[in-house]
Write a structure and sequence with these properties.
The complex is a heterodimer of chains A (about 90) and B (about 190). Chain A is α+β, with helices and mostly antiparallel strands and about 90 residues long. Chain A contains 4 helices and 3 strands; from the N terminus they run H-E-H-H-E-E-H. Chain A has one domain: Orthogonal Bundle (Arc Repressor Mutant, subunit A). The relative contact order of chain A is 0.21. Chain B has about 190 residues and is an all-alpha fold. Chain B has one domain. Chain B is about 80% helix and about 0% strand. In chain B, helix 3 packs antiparallel against helix 4. Chain B is elongated, with a radius of gyration of 20 Å. Classes of the chains: A alpha+beta (about 90), B mainly alpha (about 190). Strand 1 of chain A pairs antiparallel with strand 1 of chain B.
């Protein structure tokens, strides 16, 4: 029986962002944009969705005169990611 | 990029690529601090060894404190200059902590030994260097660094019985070459 995949994570960009953040304690916006290959606009929207769900925390500050956005995965995000992996396994354990 | 018709295979691919990418990114930046610290240690060790031999004055051991004084700002400047966009992985943070702890312990012990047994400053710091390198190698799954660290730790302990005290400074220079400079260049070459 296939388990339902979390719709918030079952999207290419959001899953890519979460996969990067699971491996990193924190990552800044530019790093996420380069490692996912997304456009800044699309990435901002998806980060906002993940943040609204409580999966990641976003910290905005300034590095010199440039705005600097740092993202971190939250405990809720970790749990959701783990559950997503568990659900994903059901599609391969046949 | 937004789609919910993703296959499980595609999901798995995205996750695997992200993991591989973050490891590559860490390796890309990991060699430079090792090389920087390695050369600073090497230059100071040879200088201290030379001065100790020439003057037979243990006060030259205080020059060891020059290593962190020069090393910290230089490494920070070099890393900051190279990293426009950053991510801190658990691996990079753990490896960073190992070397910070090494720095604190090495400085503390070297200070104590500078007063009670100046000839042994570099022995103890070299053995600790081997320990820190071994831990780093195990975490990075890098056999070269792990074996280099073990050889340093055991070799320096054996050398304690056979080397004249001032020559121990040279031992630290060899340890820096084996554990910092060569692995640093190897890691940078692999990351290219």
């Amino acid at each position: 029986m296939f388990k339902k995949l979390d719709p918030l994570l079952h999207s290419e960009l959001r899953l890519a962002v979460m996969s990067v953040l699971v491996n990193c304690e924190e990552a800044d916006f530019v790093y996420l944009r380069e490692s996912t290959g997304a456009t800044a606009g699309n990435l901002s929207v998806q980060i906002e969705k993940l943040s609204a769900a409580g999966y990641i925390s976003v910290e905005k500050s300034f590095k010199g005169k440039k705005p600097h956005t740092k993202c971190r995965i939250t405990t809720t995000g970790f749990k959701a990611f783990e559950e997503y992996i568990e659900a994903l396994k059901t599609y391969f354990n046949r | 990029m937004e789609t919910n018709n993703m296959t499980p295979e595609k999901s798995l691919q995205i996750i695997s690529e992200a993991i591989a990418q973050s490891r590559r990114d860490f390796e890309k930046n990991a060699g430079t601090p090792l090389i920087t610290w390695g050369w600073i240690v090497l230059v100071f060790s040879v200088l201290i060894w030379f001065m100790l031999r020439e003057t037979n004055d243990a006060k030259w051991n205080f020059l060891w404190f020059g290593i962190p004084i020069v090393g910290w700002p230089l490494t920070r400047t070099l890393i900051k200059g190279k990293q426009e966009n950053t991510a801190t992985s658990f691996i990079s943070k753990t490896v960073g902590h190992i070397w910070i702890i090494y720095g604190i312990f090495a400085t503390t012990l070297a200070t104590a030994f500078a007063f009670i047994a100046p000839g042994y400053c570099s022995f103890i710091t070299a053995v600790l260097l081997g320990y820190a390198a071994t831990m780093t190698g195990v975490i990075l799954k890098n056999n070269y660094i792990t074996i280099g660290g073990i050889i340093t730790g055991i070799g320096c302990t054996i050398a304690l019985f056979h080397i004249e005290k001032w020559d121990a400074a040279l031992l630290f220079a060899i340890a820096a070459t084996l554990n910092l400079i060569i692995p640093g260049y190897v890691m940078n070459k692999k990351a290219k």
